[in-house]
Design brief:
Elements (H helix, E strand, L loop, with lengths): L2 H42 L7 H15 L7 H9 L9 H14 L7 H13 L1 H4 L4 H20 L2 H10 L8 H20 L17 H35 L5 H16 L10 H7 L8 H15 L6 H15 L7 H17 L2 H12 L4 H13 L14 H12 L6
Helix pairs in contact: 1-4, 1-5, 1-7, 1-9, 2-4, 2-11, 3-7, 4-5, 5-7, 7-8, 7-9, 8-9, 8-16, 10-13, 10-14, 10-15, 10-17, 11-13, 12-14, 13-14, 14-15, 15-16, 15-17, 16-17
Protein name: Chloride channel protein
Organism: Flavobacterium sufflavum
InterPro entries: Cl-channel_core, ClC, ClC-type_chloride_channel
């Protein structure tokens, strides 16, 4: 390829990255503002929870009659990357955006990452037609969409770029995709900044020195983070299977699930488990959480998403990890903010099989000073969380794959 063609090709991909970054970043900015509005309105009007069943019914009807081709959500992106078939419908973006806003407005326990990633993936894949790209380049677009969505919704461009590569199994990723993933992540990140939409900030003010004593405390805590990730993943799949088997008409699943959630949230005072739970996450860095907070968040999120409501799993994973780490500070002699921060990213690492991206995210969020603690925790949680993650279409390879294949062969993996 001559120099002129190389330059033109590079400019084409920079343009594609800029366009995906702008549109995905703008979509994430709108999502963040909309979810903040929904959370404030729900907090000020507790009676809105009684509309959760009707909201669920609306989501159910929307996907059953008009969105069957995009109902798989994040798993559809992973499947299309692994075995490309047809361009993802652009309607995935508005459908998941509306479904997520409804879920949060009426009190469902869900996150936002899945929404941002699906919007980014759907937007990115449209450029396959516009630029007449082949199958290989389509795979690159899916990576760019995931990267842009993740980076923009969390304000972590480096982690977003690595997450998109790692979640799709990095040994299959080309050098071109790797470079462009970082480019689009920063385009999307700065687009959110351009819209003056801000992300939640966390801090770990005290970092102890890394020594043998502290390491011996980090290991069991990280194993617990991994087990919490395993419980979260299996809970989400369990509730999805339960609803599918017991309620044959899909639109009724979120309707009935919404009735149950509304009754529990209203009569048992469980408001802090609604929506993202950001205030509880922030509080976990300063005050020990209740020992059962992380378990209830796992239960409510798995039930909410399993019933068919829309949203993501990652922010609930942050909630689970931060509150578990915070509660462990009563027994482990490490700073509460450090334990909460370790759990914040380690549980996410275990549930998505992405320890490198989660380590980088921890550094971006909490500072380089905590890097060693964060990295050790993420990798131990990753190894101890089992072979089943939140994305059933994700390909799990490498050390973890071989480790748990032995358990599967001995029929121990189901325990």
């Amino acid at each position: 390829m001559n120099l002129k063609k190389t330059i033109l090709l590079s400019l084409k991909w920079i343009l594609i990255c800029a366009l995906i970054g702008f549109f995905s970043g703008s979509a994430s900015a709108f999502l963040l503002v909309a979810l903040e509005w929904a959370a404030q309105l729900r907090t000020q009007n507790s009676w809105l929870v009684w509309f959760l069943p009707l909201g669920g019914l609306l989501i159910g009807f929307l996907y059953h009659y008009y969105g069957k081709d995009v109902v798989k959500g994040n798993n559809l992106l992973l499947e299309e990357y692994e075995t490309p078939k047809k361009i993802i419908s652009l309607k995935m973006a508005p459908f998941v955006l509306l479904g997520t806003i409804i879920t949060h407005l009426f009190g469902g326990s869900a996150g936002r990452e899945g929404t941002a990633v699906q919007m980014g993936g759907a937007i990115a894949d449209q450029f396959s037609r516009i630029f007449q790209l082949d199958t290989t380049d389509r795979k690159t677009l899916i990576i760019l969409g995931i990267s842009a969505g993740f980076a923009s919704v969390f304000g972590t461009p480096l982690a977003g770029a690595i997450f998109a590569l790692e979640v799709l199994y990095c040994c299959k990723i080309s050098l071109k995709s790797s470079i462009l993933s970082f480019v689009v992540a920063f385009f999307a990140y700065y687009t959110v900044e351009l819209w003056a939409v801000h992300h939640t900030h966390y801090s770990i003010p005290l970092i102890p020195e890394m020594n043998l004593k502290n390491l011996l405390w980090i290991i069991p805590a990280s194993v617990l983070f991994g087990l919490a990730a395993m419980l979260f993943s299996r809970s989400a799949h369990l509730w999805s299977a339960v609803f599918s088997k017991t309620i044959t008409y899909p639109p009724l699943r979120p309707y009935i699930g919404g009735i149950i959630l509304a009754l529990i949230f209203y009569y048992f005072g469980s408001a802090k488990f609604m929506g993202l739970g950001i205030p509880t996450i922030v509080e976990a860095f300063n005050k020990p959480s209740e020992y059962y907070d992380f378990l209830l968040k796992i239960l409510f999120t798995g039930f909410t998403l399993g019933a068919g409501f829309k949203g993501g799993e990652v922010t609930p994973l942050f909630f689970v990890g931060a509150t578990l780490g915070s509660a462990l500070s009563l027994f482990i002699p490490l700073p509460i903010a450090l334990l909460a921060g370790m759990g914040f990213v380690a549980v996410f690492s275990g549930a998505t099989h992405t320890p490198v991206a989660c380590t980088v995210m921890g550094i971006e969020l909490f500072g380089i000073e905590s890097a060693v603690f964060i990295a050790i925790s993420c990798f131990i949680a990753y190894l101890s969380s089992g072979s089943v993650g939140i994305y059933h279409a994700q390909t799990v390879k490498g050390v973890k794959y071989h480790l748990y294949e032995k358990f599967k062969r001995n029929k121990l993996d189901d325990f």
